[in-house]
Design brief:
The chain has 721 residues and is of the alpha+beta class. The chain has 27 helices and 20 strands. The strands form 6 sheets. A 5-stranded mixed β-sheet has the order 1-2-5-4-3. Strands 12-14-13-15 form a 4-stranded mixed β-sheet, with no helix packed on it. It has a 4-stranded antiparallel β-sheet with strand order 18-19-17-20, covered by helices on one side.
């Protein structure tokens, strides 16, 4: 292969037609940049020499076609060059250093970024290779042009999918529909998204695609006259009101029809019985004037107007949407936008790219995409697990948004079903961490309340309020989920260090010594041998059941130069470790006996889980005591807070209203019912099992007393006994 530094000016007469076509498409670039693009082709052609596509064409035709798609978007020279060379690092002998030397570091970075993406394969959105998907999103965060090249590469592959075998076509099509089309949508690139979806639909479900396409053609043939009349009426009305506008009829795509039929359970006739038009005007003010004009022509349908100009979508999309009742009894959907908004709606982050610089003004889609990618980078920094990161991203990538107002009038876009707690974390992590309630449209509501578009939301905070594990059930956004998990992990670590300290102290005390008596040098040597960086890690490991406190104590004493048998055993009775129940990061309460404050209890060190608390009379304790080194002597503190799960087995007379009577008695005792089920039931009697929340044994006794007084109960007792 000739050195890539050979930069002899290319002779146009020797260039193949597809390269000449690319030259024409990049004519918006300065002449020296066009020459660099042609030079990239020459280098790529030599590198890919002898390689062919499945269709039999020379391989270089593919990257040149990808560059052509990007040229249609008006992308900069570096992006076009990187597109031509995007397969060279993986499939040819060309090195990254040679690329950087000939075309600059930016091009080398882009090619390197796309090469990493090309190594990924997805079987479905659910089974996406998490680590690869994570790398792709972070590559986007570093330079959006990487994903633009990848999307263009995917689009050309989809256009030429026919050469692949059937299983490959289905796999690539599913991947396109479930990964790449949604990314294009999230970046505001609706034109890309629509073509990727239809090509994916045609490859994945060819019969369904053919049937729907034929029905669309037939329906359009029947409606052409009506469409022409409505278009003429709209144009005439706008002209009469001195509004310069272009009116274009819109046709739903096969994938759009199919998705709505499947997801909204609508028939083909229902979906096609709608006329769609787009009105493009010269300014935002003209959009609202045009809205008034079309509302004057045809009556608007109530509650079907949306203003995405004042409140843009999360991907930067702006437009006015309205639905009118047309002259033929069918609804007319009208979108009104400026030419700039139309360009951003079609091309998203790629709109007018050639005229933007890193420091220059970004269009709304670029600004929104950068915000999104910045939040992704923050999320991944706080998320260890790739699959957890992807779980958070999926919510942001496939959104159905609601738009909400802060008290200051700012607008926040959140996924549908978002709660007041999601809103709190969207404002700021500190607001979320200390939230206690919310005011929605000035009414006080719980944090778990689901929000609807247009609501004014104010979060009420308190310095003492802190996240708890139940919050994970109430949030849908990745940001809220990541922040809550991060706090709980931190809390668990603090609890574990404190509890581990108490357990090790107790074990050392049994050997007649203490942690303070262990020389620092001995402790450091022990930590190094155990591959631990700090004492806190050792203490946390003990509390989480990964190390046995008595064993660690014996090893520390031995490391000090004494055998544990030589150490005078402590003569006094060992004090039990007191628990308040607040150590939820380290403690869990067994489901086999549901211990309550006031019960005599024992702890069992379970590896990775920490201490599992059982009642002493629990049948399983006999087995647990066979591992005495894992048993922990614990007792309830005097001041115990919180609610604890208990189960009641209640024998009742089987008659109408009995369940309501028992439930009312439980509620009257200030206990919350978590679950109820029939264990046994016949014509005369029934046995009910209630799962309750109570404060302690005394509270449970009060619940049982009230239940027994109802007169419909023949027996009520704690379960298990």
């Amino acid at each position: 292969m000739p050195a890539v530094t050979d930069s002899t000016p290319p002779d146009s007469s020797t260039l193949p037609p597809y390269v000449l076509a690319l030259k024409e498409r990049v004519a918006y670039l300065p002449e020296p940049q066009v020459a660099r693009v042609v030079r990239a082709y020459e280098v790529g052609a030599v590198a890919h020499e002898g390689q062919a596509r499945k269709s039999g064409e020379p391989y270089i035709t593919h990257p040149v076609a990808v560059a052509g798609i990007l040229a249609e978007l008006g992308m900069d020279a570096e992006t076009i060059i990187a597109a031509i060379l995007h397969d060279t690092l993986e499939d040819t002998a060309l090195s990254r250093a040679e690329l950087a030397s000939e075309f600059g570091e930016t091009v080398a970075e882009l090619v390197d970024g796309v090469t990493k993406l090309d190594k990924m394969s997805f079987s479905s959105r659910q089974e996406a290779d998490a680590e690869s998907f994570r790398k792709m999103l972070l590559a986007m965060a570093r330079d959006l042009r990487v994903i633009l090249i990848k999307l263009s590469d995917r689009l050309h592959n989809m256009r030429t999918l026919g050469a692949k075998d059937a299983p490959s076509r289905r796999r690539i099509a599913r991947e396109t529909l479930e990964i790449y089309a949604p990314i294009a949508q999230r970046l505001g690139m609706n034109k890309f998204k629509a073509e990727l979806q239809d090509l994916g639909f045609r490859a994945l479900y060819p019969d369904r695609y053919r049937v729907i396409s034929e029905r669309i053609r037939a329906a359009l043939g029947n409606r052409r006259e009506a469409m022409g009349k409505i278009e003429a009426a709209l144009s005439t009305r706008l002209m009469a009101d001195h509004i310069t506008a272009k009116v274009v009829g819109r046709i739903k795509s096969p994938w759009s029809i199919y998705s709505k039929m499947r997801n909204e359970h609508k028939s083909f006739a229902q979906l096609m019985d709608v006329y769609g038009f787009r009105v493009v005007v010269d300014s935002a003010m003209s959009c609202y004037m045009a809205l008034g004009a079309v509302h004057g022509l045809y009556k608007p349908v109530d509650r079907r107007f949306k203003d995405f100009i004042a409140i843009p979508k999360a991907n930067g999309y702006q437009s006015l949407h309205t639905v009118l009742l047309g002259p033929f009894g069918a609804p007319i959907e009208v979108q009104i936008r400026t030419a700039e908004m139309d360009s951003v709606a079609e091309r998203g982050v790629a709109a007018h790219w050639a005229y933007k610089t890193d420091s220059g003004p970004a269009n709304s889609a670029q600004a929104r995409a950068r915000e999104w990618l910045s939040s992704l980078a923050d999320s991944q920094a706080n998320t260890v697990s790739s699959s957890e990161f992807i779980e958070n991203v999926k919510i942001d990538l496939f959104p159905d948004e609601v738009y909400l107002f802060t008290p200051r009038g700012d607008i926040l876009a959140l996924p549908r079903n978002a709660t007041a707690l999601d809103f709190a974390y969207a404002v700021h992590t500190d607001v979320g961490d200390h939230a206690v309630a919310a005011r929605v449209d000035k009414k006080l509501v719980p944090l778990r309340t689901r929000l609807e578009s247009g609501q004014l939301v104010e979060i009420i905070t308190a310095p003492s309020a802190l996240p708890n594990p139940a919050w994970l059930e109430s949030v849908v956004t990745g940001k809220a989920r990541t922040a809550i998990r991060q706090y709980l992990k931190h809390l668990q670590h603090e609890d574990a260090v404190d509890f581990g300290h108490r357990m090790l102290d107790r074990a050392l005390d049994a050997l007649g010594t203490s942690l303070d008596a262990i020389p620092p040098a001995v402790l450091d040597r022990f930590l190094e041998t155990s591959k631990l960086k700090r004492l806190e890690e050792l203490l946390s490991d003990i509390a989480l059941g990964n190390r046995i406190p008595h064993l660690v104590a014996s090893q520390l004493v031995a490391a000090r130069g004494k055998k544990s048998s030589d150490v005078q055993q402590s003569p006094h009775v060992m004090e039990k470790i007191r628990i308040t129940g607040a150590e939820r990061g380290v403690l869990s309460f067994s489901n086999c006996c549901h211990p309550l404050p006031g019960d005599e209890i024992i702890g069992y060190l379970s590896s990775g889980k920490g201490i599992v608390v059982h009642r002493v009379e629990c049948p399983n304790v006999v087995e647990l005591r066979k591992s005495p080194e894992r048993c922990v002597a614990i007792e309830w503190d005097r001041d115990v807070q919180g609610d604890y799960r208990a189960e009641l087995r209640i024998e009742v007379i089987n008659r109408p209203g009995v369940l309501a009577t028992v439930a009312a008695a439980i509620a009257a005792a200030n206990s919350n019912i978590e679950n109820v089920e029939y264990v046994e039931r016949d014509a005369a009697a029934a046995t009910l099992l209630f799962a309750l929340e109570v404060k302690n044994r005394k509270h449970l006794a009060e619940v049982i007393r009230r239940v027994r007084r109802t007169g419909v109960v023949s027996g009520a007792y704690r379960y298990p006994l």
